[in-house]
UniProtKB/TrEMBL annotation, chain A:
Keyword entries, A-Z: FAD, Flavoprotein, Oxidoreductase
InterPro entries reported for this sequence: FAD-oxidoreductase/Apoptosis, FAD/NAD-bd_sf, FAD/NAD-binding_dom, FAD/NAD-linked_Rdtase_dimer_sf, Reductase_C
FAD/NAD(P)-binding domain span: 5-300
Organism: Devosia geojensis
GO function terms (MF aspect): oxidoreductase activity, acting on NAD(P)H
Record's protein name: Ferredoxin reductase
Chain ranges of the Reductase C-terminal domain: 319-406
CC per GO annotation: cytoplasm
Family matches, as SUPFAM superfamilies: FAD/NAD(P)-binding domain, FAD/NAD-linked reductases, dimerisation (C-terminal) domain
Needed co-factor(s): FAD
Automatic annotation (TrEMBL), chain B:
Domain Rieske stretches: 5-101
InterPro entries assigned: MocE_2FeS, Rieske_2Fe-2S, Rieske_2Fe-2S_sf
Family from the record: Belongs to the bacterial ring-hydroxylating dioxygenase ferredoxin component family.
Keywords: 2Fe-2S, Iron, Iron-sulfur, Metal-binding
Pfam families membership: Rieske (PF00355)
Keyword Iron attributed: yes
Full protein name: MocE
Naturally occurring in which organism (per UniProt): Devosia geojensis
One GO molecular-function entry: metal ion binding
Cofactor: [2Fe-2S] cluster
Domain of life: Bacteria
């Protein structure tokens, strides 16, 4: 009997399966994954799970909960093809699953470093639990780690490795860390914290060569200097897993293109999470692909409704967060270089920046501070963004003016 | 039987807001609803360690500051992912200006 097939058993796919069941769908649900693990949360893989030898991933759902909900999980058995005419998904082990509706939650994968068109061997990446185990095993105290890439992932790995007593050198070819989507004032706080923790931070450097094997790694910079370590982890972005969709003839443009209900051009096929490009409500419907944990969760919920016939368009404000050392930083909305910035000091060591577009509309907010100190204000800012509010900048700057009050206004 | 302890004064919490209350090594969250009614739950999210007192109260909902898991603070019921385990709740009563919580 045909049912709902979900390709991708990461957190997004698993939560979509749970949401379908939670909303009363009573037909078969198949969850198809490439990993051997039960679905788990990926964000801790660069933090708590990387920090402790033997720490298990945090599961999204366990065997009993899957059984109770009659969700069939196909582990270590990735989908290899979609036959849209016959509505069949073919699996790596030769099996086939019939669907009446198909959901693609195939995620993204780390961009891999290449030289002369071939992948450079011996480099660590972090996406799956298996990657985390491999990296963790090498991060014993005293290991010398080279991190390539000063985005959230590279910085989080650097922070965790320092806490484990590793010597860490982080190499970023851009002039500063967190160039993509995080304002300079916040990136400066992050960079200073890493330097205070003893990370050798090299920004704005050119890379002339990379070499790595089981025994060591080295990066040669454009100026001829050579940085050597025991291992190298590359965190230089992710590419969406769209091959399956493209081979099936679905439209792909930096992600599997979906409409506001998260449906592809084929009415029987939906896509969610890091693999999809969707019209972003808070950006006037501009089609974008996000790599946002929370957006993936929201889409998992929303697509369950769409797959059950609801017509409600998906709405979200992009939200990103990172935890490094005792610091937490969050970004709601998508900051742009031409935004006017209004600062609100929350404490000596915490502040929030409001990003206003040319019309005075609150387009984004970003903040940094000790864990927990900033969450409430950014959440309220996010609600202001969702309402397309044009708050008075003078009120935004004053910490004693409650944002909740602005929301009510 | 649990014991009643004074957690705070009624004016210590704004309406539709939450504060933290620590007692004998345990952390509680004390809520005042938009209608001015008081409630108490365990102060730490059931998903990952985060203090709910740093979160946002919206109507009957407390949203965790860390990953936006939501709970109904009146019943402790988990309302949205990633939260899936309910929060423990504790009886509350008002004595004069004081908010008392019955600790476990």
């Amino acid at each position: 009997m045909a049912g709902r097939v979900i390709v991708g058993a990461g957190e997004c796919g698993a939560r979509a399966a749970l949401a379908l069941r939670g909303r009363g769908f009573d037909g078969p649900i198949h969850l198809v994954g490439e990993e051997a693990e039960l679905p788990y949360e990926r964000p801790p893989l660069s933090k708590a799970v990387l920090a402790e030898d033997g720490a298990p991933p945090r599961q999204v759902v366990n065997e009993a909960a899957l059984a109770e909900r009659s969700i069939t999980l196909h582990r270590a058995n990735p989908a290899v093809a979609i036959d849209r005419d016959a509505r069949i998904v073919r699996l790596a082990d030769g099996g086939a699953l019939c669907y009446d509706l198909l959901l693609l939650a195939t995620g993204a994968r780390p961009r891999r470093l290449q030289k002369d068109g071939a992948e450079i061997a011996g480099i660590h990446y972090l996406r799956h639990m298996a990657d985390c185990r491999a990296l963790r095993q090498r991060l014993g105290s005293g290991a010398k780690l080279l991190v390539l890439g000063g985005g959230f992932l590279g910085l989080e790995i650097a922070a965790t490795a320092r806490r484990r007593g590793c010597a860490v050198t982080l190499i970023e070819t851009q002039p500063r860390v967190l160039m993509r989507g995080v304002p300079a004032d916040i990136a400066d706080v992050v960079a200073a914290r890493h330097r205070a923790a003893g990370v050798d931070l090299r920004c704005g450097v050119g890379i002339a060569g990379i070499a790595a094997d089981e025994t060591g790694a080295a990066v040669t910079l454009a100026d001829g200097s050579r940085l050597a370590g025991d291992l190298l982890v590359a965190c230089v972005g992710a590419v969406p897993n769209t091959e399956l969709a493209a081979a099936a003839g679905l439209t792909v443009d930096n992600g599997i293109v979906v409409d506001a209900r998260l449906r592809t051009g084929d009415p029987a096929i939906f896509a969610v999470g890091d693999c999809c490009a969707f019209p972003l409500s808070s950006r006037d419907g501009r089609v974008m692909r996000l790599e946002s944990w929370r957006c993936a969760l929201e889409q998992a919920e929303a697509v369950a409704g769409s797959m059950l016939g609801e017509e409600r368009p998906f709405e979200t404000v992009p939200w990103f967060w990172s935890d490094q050392y005792e610091l937490s930083l969050q970004v709601a909305g998508l900051p742009e270089p031409d935004h006017a910035i209004v600062e609100r000091r929350l404490a000596d060591d915490a502040f929030i920046l409001f990003h206003l577009d040319a019309t005075g509309r609150l387009a984004a907010a970003s903040d940094i501070g000790p864990d927990g100190s900033i969450a409430r204000d950014i959440r309220l800012a996010e609600m202001l963004i969702a309402r397309r509010a044009r708050p008075d900048p003078a009120l935004l700057s004053r910490a004693e003016v409650k944002l909740k009050g602005l929301l009510a206004a | 039987m649990g014991r009643w302890v004074t957690a705070c004064a009624i004016d210590d919490v704004d309406e539709e807001d939450v504060i933290r209350f620590d007692h004998e090594g345990k952390v509680y969250a004390i809520y005042k609803s938009p209608q001015g009614e008081f409630f108490a739950t365990n102060g730490v999210c059931t998903h990952e360690h985060a203090y709910l007192s740093d979160g946002l109260v919206m109507g009957d909902i407390i949203e965790c500051p860390k990953h936006n898991g939501r709970f109904d603070y009146r019943t402790g019921a988990a309302r949205s992912a990633p939260a899936c385990v309910d929060l423990a709740t504790f009886p509350v009563r008002i004595e004069g200006e004081d908010v008392l919580v019955e600790v476990g």
